[in-house]
Amino acid sequence: MAEASYPADLLYHSEHDWARIDEADPTTATLGITWYAQDALGEVVFLELPAVGTATSKDASYAEIESVKAVSDVVAPLSGEIVEVNEALTENPGAVNEDPYGEGWLVKVRLTDASEREALMDAASYSASLDG
Amino acid sequence: MSAGAVAEGPAIPAREARTIFQKGAPGRRAFVCPSLDVPETDAEELLPARFRRAEPPRLPEVSEPEIVRHYVGISKRNFDLDSGFYPLGSCTMKHNPRMHERVAALPGHSRLHPLQRPERAQGALELMWNLQSALSEISGLPYVSLQPSAGSHGELAGVLLTRAYHEDRGETRHKVLIPDTAHGTNPATVTMAGMEVVKLATDAAGGVDVDDLRAKCGPDAACLMLTNPNTLGLFDPNIEEIAAIVHGVGATLYYDGANLNAVMGLSRPGDMGFDIVHFNLHKSFTQPHGGGGPGSGPIAVSERIAPFLPRPLVVRRERPHRNGGASAPGDEHDRGEIPRANGHSPAALSRTFVYDLEYDRPKSIGRLRGFQGNYGCLVRAYAYICSLGADGLKDASEVAVLNANYLLARLSEQGVAEHLPLAYGQLCMHEFVLSGGPMKRGLGLKTLDLAKRLLDFGYHPPTVYFPLLVDEALMIEPTETETKETLDGFADAIAAILKEAAEDPEIARNAPYSTPVRRLDEVAAAKRPVIRQALD
Amino acid sequence: MSRYTAITEANLDAMLAAIGVGSVREMFDRQIPAGVRLGRPLDLPEGLGEQEVYAHLRDLAARNSSVEDELSFLGAGMYDHYVPALIDMLTERSEFLTPYTPYQPEISQGGLQVMFEYQTAISELTGLPVSNASVYEGPSAVAAAGYLAKLHNGRRRFVVSAGLHPHAIETLRTHAHGYGMEVVEVPLSDGATDPGEWARAIDGDTSAAIFAQPNFYGAVEDAEALSAAARDAGGEAGGGGSPGAGAGAAGGRPLVICQVDPIPLGILKPPGECGVDVAVGEGQPLGNRLDFGGPSFGLFAAREEYLRRMPGRIAGETVDADGRRGFVLTLQTREQHIRREKATSNICTAQALNALAGVVYLAWLGRAGIVELGELLLARTHYARETLAGLDGVEKLHERPVIREFAVRLDADVGAVIRRCLKDGVNPGVDLQALTGRAQDAGGLLVAITERRSRADIDRLAQVLGGAVAAERDPAVADEAVTA
Q1: Do the Cβ atoms of C247 and A62 come within 8 Å?
Q2: pLDDT of B275-323, one tens digit each?
C-alpha cells in the first residue's frame, strides 16, 4: 500500500498495531500492524505467528515479523485467546505490506476484557501521534 | 573517462555462476588413493552393511585443473583488502603482512598435533606464553587466556567469568549493562550466558549517559560491557567515573577490544579500570579476515578474575636445577617477558624455563572449545608484535587516529559535510560515524545507495546502518596502513557521488554497474531460501 | 613510520593542518583523560625486521616435534591427513585471504559462492538438507547445537553419551552452565553407548540427546537405534515444564544431536538417514592443518525445520537486477547484528577460510575418492588393531567396528610406554586416561590411522610398541635393553 492510511473503524495501539472489533460478535477482534509499522519494516519476508489457543496479553508481544534487515515484535492491543491465525501469510508475507488492514490481518482473538478498548486510540489520535 | 563512470562499448557477455557441483563429469578425479597394502578382509566383518552408506555423497567429479580454474575464477569475483581500500568501521581492515603466512606455514607450527606432549611442543608453548605476556602489557591486565576462537567467543568467556566470580562470592547477579551503541554480539552473548540485557543511553556528546548508568547500576548488576573508544569512534571522557560506579556496586567492567587499534601504547584498558578485556587478533593484530574468519579472541583479566579462567592455561616454571632444587611456588604465574637479545630466545633463557599446559584449576569455568585455541592465528599475531615492538604498536595507533581525523577533515569540507554530517563530537579516535539523514532528505539518496555507488569507484564501502543510534549511519575506519593519497581518493569519490546525485540520484539508486553482479534481490533470498545446490 | 605505515613529514604537516591541530599528541591530549594515559613506553622489546622475526619464529618451530619429525598415530579429533598443495595456493590468494564477511554481496560473489558450495558439500556428507557456512570448531559446535535445542523446546536437560569427545562434553558443560541447562552423562558398555542407560536417562525434560559417530574410542555406534530410543523415551514435556519461548515451540521431544567425524561419512550411513536432527563436528580433517589445535572449522547441519534457529552465516541463492544468478547472506535476522539479544548465536567472525579449504578438499577427494579413502582407512585400521592386539600386554578396548581410530589397553604405564616409543621416533597415540580422566580408561591408548600411515608404518608401530610394553612390564628386559 503506497499511501499511509489509518481506517476510521479501527482501534490503534501506540506500538503500531490495530484491532478491529467484530461488528456481529463484539467479543472477538481481528489484530494486525499499521501502515506505519509495515513501512518502517520494509518488505516482509517471514512471520512467526503463535498457534491457535495461545493467549495474547495487552501490551505484550505475541508474534515476530521479519524483513530482510530487521525483526519486529508485534504487540497485542488487547488480551484474549487466539481462535484463528492467518495461515495465508506463510506463502504470501507481502500481504502485510500491500494490504495491512485487509489480507494482511495476523490473528483473530476471543477477547477476555472488553474494557481494554478504552485504552486504545482512534484513527485521528493515532495518526496525530505519528506526526509528533 | 572519469572514475566511476559507466563503461561504454559492446556488452561483455555475462557469465552465469556455476558451482563446482555443476562442473566435471563422471569418472574424473583429482585424488589418487594409496593402494591397499594390508590383507583384504571380508567387508561385512570390517563394517556391517547396516552401518554402511548405500549411496556415496554426491561430491563433484573433477580433475585438479578444473578445481584450480574454478576456484581461481570465482576468487576474481571478490573485492579484497590487498586490492583496495576497505574502511569497515570497527573491523580494523589493516594490511595483512605476508611474512606471517610464511612463518605460520613452518611445519614446526602448522603440522604440530594439539595433543603432542608438552615437552615436545616447547616452541609452541613458549610462543603462547610470550604472546600472553605481550597482550598483558598492552592491556594492562596480568592474566591471559588465548583459548577463545573469536571476539564474540571472548565476550562469552567474559560474561561466564563474571558469573563465576559472583557465584564464588555467593551472589547471583543477572543484569549486564550495555550501551545502545554496542555491537550486536554484546547482547547476543549476554543471552547465551543466561543473563539479562539492560540498555544504557548515550549522552549528547556520544558517551555513556552517566546519570542513566547511576540509575540502572545497582547491586543486581553483574557487569558493564563497553568498548572504548566506542562505536562512534569516541573515547569516553567519563571512563574513570564509570569504572568507579561499576566497581562501587561490586560489578565487573568488561572491555570489548574491537577498537583497541586506537589506543595501543597510549592508554590501557586495565588502567581505565576494566577487569576483563578481549582482543580481536584478526583486527588490531593483522590475522587476515579470511572472508569471515578464522579469528581469535584472547582475553586478559585482573587478579580477582584469574582463578576462573578457562582451562588449560599456559604456564611457565623454572627448570629444576641439577642439584634437585624445586621451582618456587607462584613462578608459574610470573608474567615473564619476550626474549630481547636480537629477537631470538637466548639459548640460556630457553633452557631455564619449561612451559606447560595446566589443567588443575578448580575454579575454572572449564573449556570453551577443544584444545588450546586458534594457534595458527596466535603465530601471526605474535610475529606482528615482534615486528612492531613497543614503538611500532604506538605508532600504529597514532597513525590510525591521524588517518581517521584527516579523512574526517576531508569529509567535513563543503560539498560533503552538509549531506553527511558527523554524528557526534569534533575530533575522533580511529573511526567516525557520519549520518546520511540530510543526504536522504536533501538528495533523495540513502546511505545504502552511496555505498553501492562507491563499489563502482573501486572502494569497499564503510559499514552502513550501524550504530543503530545514528540515522542512515556510515561508519568509517581507515586504519594506519593507508596512505594519504588513498584517503584523498576516497574523499574525492564521496564528493563526486554526492555531486552526481544532486544532478541525477537515479544513478546511485541503481548502482553498482561495474561489479560482477548488479544489486541482488535479498528479499527473494529470505522469502524462499535456497541454501544448497540442487542435484539431479 | 614503519614498513606498514606511510606518513611522511610532508604528509603529516598537511594532515595536521587540515585537521586543525598542532600535533598528533594534541589529538590524544584532547580525547583521552590524563588519568588513563600511559605515560611510558610499553614494556616490550623493540620491533624487528622481517628477517629477524623469521629467524625467531623458525627457532621456536624447531623446538616442536611435528608430524614431520616423528611417526605419529595421534588423533582424538584432529588427524594428519594429506592436504594437497592446491589448497595452500587457494587459501593464500588475496581474494580469499584478506576480505571480511561478505556484507556487500555484489563484490563478494567469490566468498558467497564458496559458502554456498561448502553448505552443499556438508549437506551431502551428512544427509541433512540445511547447513550453515561454518562455526568455530567441533566441541563448541556441540554447545551451539545444544543452544539451538534449548531455544527450540525450552526443556532443561542435555543427555550426552560418554562416547562424545571429552572436550565436547566439557565445552557443553561450560556453555550450559551459562544458559542454565543440566548435563547428564550416559556411560558406554563394550565400547558403545549403553542402550539401557541411554533410554533410562532420557525423559520428557530432555532438550537434546547427544552422541558421537564414530565415538571417541573409535567405535561405530548404532546411530539409528540411539536416535529412535531418544525420540521414544523423551515424549511430551513433563508436567510443569513450560512450553518455552516463542510461537510454535511446543514440548514435543528431545532433539537428536550427533557429533560426526566427516571423513568416515564417505562410507558410514550419514546422520540424516539415522533419524538425527542436528549433525555437528570437527572439520579439521577436511583439508585443514593441525596447527596445534586451530584454526579449523565446525560443521553444522540440520533438518529443514530448524533452519531459522541455525547459528552462523548462511549463504543463499538469488538473482540480481539483470536476472543473473548470484549469492547473498540470507536469513540474517537470526544473527546477532540484527536480532541482538534474541539471536540464535553471538557468532560474528566464523571460519570462512577454513571452510574454503574444506570444500576444496571435498572436491579434490571427489565422489569416488571419499569412498576409497574410507575403505582404505577401514582396512588399515582393522589391520592395525589386530596387529597390536596380537602383542603381549596389549588388548582391544572393545570389539566394535572401527574406521580410522581405535583404543587398546596396555598392561603397563601408558605414559612410560609412550616415552619409550618416542625415543624410537614413534608417537604411538594418545594417553586415554590423561585426556578423559576416567578411571576405566587406565592403561588406554588411542591410536589413529590416516592414509599417510602405510602398512610398513603400522608394522613399525607394532614393533616399537611391543618392545616398549615388554620393557615396562618386565624390568629385567628393560635392564637388558639399557645395557645392550
Answers
A1: yes
A2: 999 999 999 999 999 999 999 999 999 999 999 999 999 999 988 765 4
Res B5 pLDDT > 80: no
What is the distance between the alpha carbons of residues C364 and B66, in angstroms, rounded to a whole number? 10
Q: Which residue of C has its CA nearest to B517?
A: C106
Cβ distance A69 to B523 less than 8 Å, yes or no, reads no
With an 8 Å Cβ cutoff, is A45 touching chain B?
yes
DSSP state of B267: B
Grid cell listed for C128: 541433512
Cell readout for B280 is 580481536
Q: What CA–CA distance (Å, rounded) separates C303 from C275?
A: 10
Domain range for residue A24?
Answer: 11-114
What type of residue is C288?
N
* Selected residues 436-465 of chain B with any CB under 8 Å from a CB in chain A: 465
Q: Does residue A40 sit at the B interface (CB-CB below 8 Å)?
A: no
| Class of domain C71-78+368-483 (CATH, top level) | alpha beta
- Give the CATH number of domain B391-524; options: 3.90.1150.10, 2.60.40.10, 1.10.1200.120, 3.40.50.720: 3.90.1150.10
The pLDDT, as a whole number, for residue A106 is: 96
How close B173 gets to chain C, by Cα (Å)? Answer: 12
Q: Which of residues 173-202 of C touch A (CB under 8 A)?
A: none
Domain spans of chain B? 20-75, 100-384, 391-524
Residues C324-357 as b/e (b if ≥16 CB within 10 A, e otherwise) read bbbbbbbbbbbbbbbbbbbbbbbbbbbbbbbbbb
**Per the structure, how many domains does chain A have?**
1
pLDDT > 90 in chain B, percent: 86
- Contact at CB, C174 and B510, closer than 8 angstroms: no
Would you say residue C426 has pLDDT above 50? yes
Do residue A71 and residue C338 have CB atoms under 8 angstroms apart?
yes
Residue A70 inside a domain? The answer is yes
- Provide the whole-model pTM: 0.93
Task: Choose which CATH entry (3.40.630.10, 3.40.640.10, 2.130.10.130, 3.40.50.1820) describes domain B100-384.
Answer: 3.40.640.10
